[in-house]
């Protein structure tokens, strides 16, 4: 059984991880995903990619945090041999964590530190981890998806080093049959459309970069409430015709890959990430990806490993200079640092096999 506060068709890093791992484990195990159903907008029972999905009611009907109704009933009904819990941050996930331990079912927790648009929620994550630490320590395994998390969690949560695994997210994705030509003036900016993702700084930089001789144009890939604000910003700067917004559903990932590959530069302007999936996917496609040199370890750590390039980006002026320099510099991502989703799923399968052997 795999539990995630959100699951496909909802989009996001945790949702992608849950779907990719569940789909692959289902090839050799009987996997059921239990997730939330805010507003009852989706079927309570579903099948996606051959995986059975059970969605439970939540209260309130929308928003976060939310409280699950029926999660324990699912646990008792399914009687799983192992539970994989993707994320700990929501009330749903905390409920799943404690319920699974109380029912003495072997548990694998995937932390997914991530970032939250709600500044208060983000600030409370360390406290939340300390509150849940005794439950984490009772899990059979816990999983960090970024190298810097391993030391952080060992120190902060006093975890058994043998039970804390490092399994990075997969970076592979479907690709177009023919790689598109690179547009020398095309920038792509990736990330949810939230203020903290800093798309507005890239749009400001585009206004300075764009001239008749240098016709830079920008595709912003993501969804979120900030789109109307960013659209208005582009109009105010008189570059509305040079900025477009795109988002891609799960079945459109080959189209997403083509858009990324058509860019001269891909920009991931967020300062705070754990192991940003969209960033490593772009790098795996061979894209030249720029990240902020001022970012946290989850951001600049990728640059130190040669996967992306870290550039000054404190404001639009710095971004302009960084883009101009990067556009004339050859950069080849270090693909040896990346793994596939099959690799990641194999690591989860090995943990499941170990748990099974301990029961014999």
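Sequence proposed for the structure above (360 residues):
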């Amino acid at each position: 059984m795999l539990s995630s506060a959100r699951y496909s068709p909802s989009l996001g890093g945790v949702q992608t991880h849950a779907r990719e791992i569940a789909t692959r484990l289902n090839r050799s195990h009987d996997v059921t995903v239990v997730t939330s159903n805010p507003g009852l907008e989706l079927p309570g029972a579903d099948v996606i990619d051959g995986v059975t999905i059970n969605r439970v009611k939540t209260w309130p009907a929308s928003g976060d945090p939310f409280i699950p109704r029926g999660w324990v009933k699912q646990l008792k009904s399914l009687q799983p041999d192992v539970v994989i819990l993707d994320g700990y941050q929501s009330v749903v996930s905390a409920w799943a964590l404690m319920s699974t331990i109380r029912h003495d079912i072997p548990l694998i927790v995937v932390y997914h530190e991530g970032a939250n648009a709600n500044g208060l929620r983000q600030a409370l994550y360390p406290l939340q981890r300390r509150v849940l630490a005794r439950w984490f320590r009772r899990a059979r395994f816990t999983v960090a998806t970024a190298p810097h998390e391993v030391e952080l969690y060992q120190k902060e949560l006093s975890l058994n080093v043998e039970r804390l695994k490092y399994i990075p997210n997969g970076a592979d994705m479907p690709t177009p049959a023919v790689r598109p030509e690179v547009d020398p003036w095309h920038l792509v900016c990736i990330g949810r459309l939230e203020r903290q993702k800093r798309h507005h700084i890239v749009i400001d930089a585009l206004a300075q970069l764009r001239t008749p001789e240098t016709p830079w144009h920008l595709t912003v890939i993501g969804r979120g409430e900030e789109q109307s604000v960013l659209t208005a910003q582009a109009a105010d700067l008189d570059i509305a015709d040079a900025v477009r917004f795109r988002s891609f559903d799960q079945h459109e990932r080959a189209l997403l890959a083509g858009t990324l590959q058509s860019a001269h530069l891909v920009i991931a302007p967020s300062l705070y990430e754990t192991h940003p999936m969209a960033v490593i996917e772009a790098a795996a496609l061979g894209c030249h990806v720029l990240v902020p040199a001022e970012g946290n370890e989850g951001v600049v750590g990728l640059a130190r490993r040669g996967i992306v390039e870290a550039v000054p980006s404190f404001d639009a002026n710095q971004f302009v200079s960084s883009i101009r320099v990067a556009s004339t510099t050859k950069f080849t991502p270090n693909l040896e640092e990346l793994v596939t989703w099959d690799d990641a799923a194999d690591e989860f399968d090995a943990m499941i096999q170990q748990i099974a052997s301990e029961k014999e």
